[in-house]
Design a protein that fits this description.
With 753 residues, the protein is an alpha+beta fold. The protein contains 17 helices and 28 strands.
Length: 753
């Protein structure tokens, strides 16, 4: 008897198979978008990119709905609904519970109406998907359940991005235009930012300390720190029909400078900068919305042909659009005054005793040694913490770690504190930063006061270049470009290098010291010295050094098993605390060496003093301006702090005074306290603990440490009434573990290195 084939069933099975295959593809797209937060790739030569999960899921639900309508018309709605029972409602309820559990956990910050809408949409999506199978093959039900879980992940992921639901102008600049995690510098987020409606704020008054020297009033605008491709700048964010107007006094030979960029669809809008003067007006700059750069920033400089009183207007003409225009750092520039520029160079993990100018017997720093002959060398400089975050917090604020509170990877720098960038900005300096250390991203609060904060992302090591970071040569190219762009104004520039940070990856021509870690470190240091020499020579040849103060230092040293461990963030001994400190001053201080001990906490007070900026109100460091001109002095005792991550939470404090270094573990604990005392004149390596035979000295120094901690905690409470929490995302945790800043399994709480 011939087999009778049900062709309609075969077609239905084929459609289900295609829907199942599509489900798998959409689920892969969802997983990539949720867990990688966007991706960009090529498949068979065709570009594939996504920054959200919405379109793929929408297409799938539409197809499933169409298929259900077709199948329901043949089999009947009643039979299709029966396919949902009994487990369909339970699965839908489980999905909604998952969504609300995520909301209660705090991952979702959308309004309650969004939860209801999303939950209802998820249930509808599940019902449609289940009905599409006709409730028949169990395998088809499994595919539908996978689709449903993917939908719920998508909804939760979308809701956790607050700006999709609520986007005031104050939040207009988010990760949309930021470089995606793992992307190289100079690349935009895959797919580009999607235009989202914004809410226009009321009339806003803009202070001169927020966006350069201009100040005024506007409507439909706000002032934000905007990031485009890792380049953070202070900007006026102006929506269509918005403006910023500011009255100015125009000296002879002045010019208006600003940077421009845009986001979203501006339609037929125009961005216009106008000077109103003497009853007339002059358009200084004008562009259609579609012509304005979406990245990188477009720098604009317009010389003025008039002087006297005037008014500058930055505006975006009316249009039905969802975009905005950014005017970053608008300034009225005139010929430079007599104050010097300041360049602060920090090479991460550079211990002093591995440089020739501090007595090292290997050729690791020939160029630095040579340049130091024309500068002022501080022979004994110690940092106040042996790892980046708390140490740079001290350099930025001239406060001890316990006072500024930036003591762990999840603790940021409070906006209530005065910083070095803010001091120079308030004094009229144009402030910039070129940053390669991922611990010091603007989200941690360290960009306060910087008009431009260029964050260089980590890169993937290759066989040709094994470094995780942009090397000094690339950084110096950015430095030279930045200085050239701002040469006509008085500036402060902070540059952070990572060439001597682990893992030590010297280029082959400098990798000549040996195969062990310390030798590799020496090779990396030799490379940095070579690049420093090239930059220094270039600055001298271009005349920059004629009116610029240059400082070279480090945030901490490095240990090579001198006290039982490697790397840094492990102890408060010389190898981790002692760093180079060299000043170059225009026409002064050549060949001077300063013997008395100083601290990194003294750098900020010194720079603001010699540059003519306003002193810090609460500085705990002292100005070394007198020492730079040869005036003798004696520094008071210096403290150091370390909140460890192995074991998590162990607290060490050091007191360095005269010939002694005193270290106390867990002060205030009755059963974990341990004392160390070293005579640094007789024992430079700090190997022999003489605490037992010097009980009187230990007791006196212990009392000083306890008084110090009590004072710091009281001052912290006064200056930082509300802690600046800096939660660490999973992506950042993975990155920090990869470069040794978090121990395996650490979640960032109280940890760092």
């Amino acid at each position: 008897m011939a087999e009778i084939r049900d062709e309609s069933k075969g077609r239905s099975d084929n459609v289900r198979f295609l829907l199942g295959a599509l489900s798998v593809a959409v689920y892969a797209d969802v997983a990539a978008s949720v867990f990688l937060r966007g991706y960009s790739a090529k498949v068979l030569g065709m570009p594939m990119a996504a920054t959200s999960v919405g379109m793929g899921l929408l297409a799938l639900v539409v197809l499933l709905a169409a298929y259900w309508i077709w199948s329901a018309g043949k089999a009947g709605i009643g039979e299709s609904i029966e396919g949902l029972l009994p487990w369909g409602p339970f699965a839908a309820l489980a999905g909604v519970m998952m969504l609300f559990t995520t909301a209660q956990a705090g991952a979702i910050k959308a309004p309650m109406g969004a939860y209801v809408w999303a939950g209802a949409l998820a249930v509808v999506a599940f019902v449609v998907a289940w009905m599409a199978t006709g409730g028949k093959p169990r395998a088809a039900r499994a595919v539908v359940f996978v689709i449903y879980l993917a939908t719920m992940s998508a909804v939760a992921g979308s809701l956790s991005t607050t700006p999709l639901w609520e986007r005031p102008a104050a939040a207009i600049m988010t990760a949309e235009t930021a470089t995606q995690p793992g992307a190289a510098a100079g690349t935009e987020a895959p797919g580009g930012p999607a235009p989202v409606p914004v809410v226009k704020p009321p009339t806003t008054t803009v202070g001169a300390d927020r966006i350069g020297v201009l100040a005024g009033k506007g409507s439909g605008m706000s002032v934000e720190k905007v990031v485009i491709r890792g380049d953070w700048r202070d900007a006026a964010v102006i929506l269509p029909e918005g403006f910023l107007s500011t009255k100015v006094r125009l000296p002879e030979g002045a010019k208006v400078t600003f940077s421009a960029a845009a986001r979203g669809d501006l339609g037929e809008s125009k961005a216009v900068v106008t000077l109103v003067h003497g009853g007339g007006q002059q358009v200084l700059w004008e562009k259609k919305g579609g012509e304005i750069s979406r990245g990188p920033w477009e720098d604009v400089s317009v010389p003025l042909t008039v002087s006297g009183e005037g008014e500058l207007v930055f505006e975006v003409t009316s249009s039905k659009s969802d975009g905005a225009v950014f005017f970053a750092n608008p300034r009225l520039r005139v010929a430079r005054g007599k104050r010097p520029n300041v360049i602060l160079l920090v090479n991460d993990t550079m211990r002093a005793d591995h440089l020739g100018l501090y007595g090292y017997n290997k050729a690791t720093s020939a160029e630095i040694d040579d340049a130091a002959k024309t500068g002022v060398v501080f022979e004994d400089c110690i940092v106040q913490a042996p790892w980046t975050i708390p140490s740079m917090g001290t350099i930025f604020t001239s406060l001890y770690p316990t006072t500024h509170g930036m003591v762990a990877a999840d603790k940021g720098l409070s906006p209530l504190l005065d910083t070095l960038g803010e001091a120079f900005n308030a004094a009229g300096f144009f402030t910039g930063c070129i940053q390669t250390n991922p611990n010091l991203s603007p989200e941690a609060g360290v960009a306060q006061g910087f008009n431009e904060y260029r964050m260089i992302p980590m890169k993937r090591p290759t066989e040709e270049d094994k470094s995780f970071y942009m090397r000094a040569q690339g950084v110096n190219e950015l430095v030279e470009e930045w200085i050239h762009a701002h040469r006509d104004t008085t500036f402060f520039l902070y540059v952070h290098y990572m060439d001597t940070h682990m893992p030590y990856t010297p280029l082959a021509e400098f990798d000549t010291f040996g195969p062990d870690p310390e030798s590799k470190y020496n090779g990396a240091l030799a490379y940095f010295s070579h690049q420093f020499g090239r930059l220094f020579d270039r600055l001298r040849a271009d005349g920059v050094l004629d009116d610029t103060i240059v400082v070279l230092t480090s945030d901490h040293g490095e240990q090579f098993w001198e006290h039982g461990t490697a790397r840094h963030g492990n102890c408060l001994h010389a190898e981790e605390l002692n760093v180079p400190l060299v000043f170059w001053l225009p026409g002064a201080g050549e060949g001077l060496r300063v013997g008395p001990r100083v601290g990194a906490i003294d750098i900020a007070p010194t720079l603001v003093a010699i540059a003519g900026a306003k002193p810090f109100a609460e500085a705990q460091g002292v100005s070394l301006a007198g020492a730079l001109s040869g005036v003798s002095f004696q520094r008071t005792p210096l403290f150091g702090e370390l909140l460890t991550y192995k074991p998590v939470g162990e607290f060490l404090v050091s007191l360095t005074a005269g010939q002694y270094r005193f270290i106390i573990d867990n002060p205030g604990s009755d059963w974990m306290t341990r004392f160390e005392l070293y005579d640094m004149e007789k024992d430079k390596g700090e190997y022999v603990n003489i605490a037992r035979e010097n009980q009187g000295t230990v007791a006196a120094m212990k009392g000083e440490v306890e008084a110090y901690l009590a004072a710091q905690r009281a001052l912290h409470k006064k200056l930082v009434p509300e802690e600046f929490a800096f939660p660490i995302s999973e992506d950042r945790q993975r990155m920090l573990r990869a470069i040794g800043y978090l121990s395996p399994g650490a979640d960032g709480e109280g940890s760092g290195k």
